[in-house]
């Protein structure tokens, strides 16, 4: 039986629609701490935006897809380390990232 959090993630992923004017560049699915996380890269007015599980990842924009992927690779490593070593829930990490920006 799936937990409520798992169902919530699936529903969020299923109903994620690109914001108006955004062009889908790439979507990755990463497994961190036993959970699958969807990372979507979109382009809007020449800037690349990153969405994690349908939520804007910190509001940052990047020059191109390569720089966005490089930044997210570093963030995935940090998030993986925090969730495994510190036993911090992934949702808490993302909430803190989105609140502080």
Keywords:
101 residues, alpha+beta, 3 helices
Record the strand order, biggest sheet: 1-2-3-4
User: Could you say which structural class the secondary elements and strand pairing correspond to?
Assistant: alpha+beta
Shape: globular
Mean pLDDT: 79
What can you tell me about this protein's structure?
The chain is α+β, with helices and mostly antiparallel strands and about 100 residues long. It has one domain. About 45% of the residues lie in helices and about 35% in strands. It is built from 3 helices and 4 strands. It has helices at about 5-15, 65-85, 90-100; strands at about 25-30, 35-45, 45-50, 55-60. It has a 4-stranded antiparallel β-sheet with strand order 1-2-3-4, with helices on both faces. Strand 2 (about 35-45) and strand 3 form a beta hairpin. The longest helix is centred in the last third of the chain and has 21 residues, at about 65-85.
Layout: helices, strands, pairs:
Blueprint: H1 4-14, E1 23-32, E2 35-44, E3 47-52, E4 55-62, H2 65-85, H3 90-100
Antiparallel strand pairs: 1-2, 2-3, 3-4
Quick structural gist:
A hairpin with a 2-residue loop joins strand 2 and strand 3.
């Amino acid at each position: 039986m799936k937990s409520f959090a798992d169902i919530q993630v699936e529903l969020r992923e299923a109903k994620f629609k690109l914001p108006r004017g955004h062009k889908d560049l790439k979507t990755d699915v990463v497994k961190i701490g036993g959970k699958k996380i969807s990372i979507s890269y979109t382009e809007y007015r020449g800037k690349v935006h990153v969405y994690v599980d349908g939520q804007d990842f910190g509001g940052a924009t990047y020059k191109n897809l390569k720089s966005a992927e490089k930044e997210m690779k570093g963030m995935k490593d940090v998030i993986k380390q925090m969730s495994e070593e510190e036993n911090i829930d992934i949702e808490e990490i993302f909430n803190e990232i989105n609140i502080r920006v």
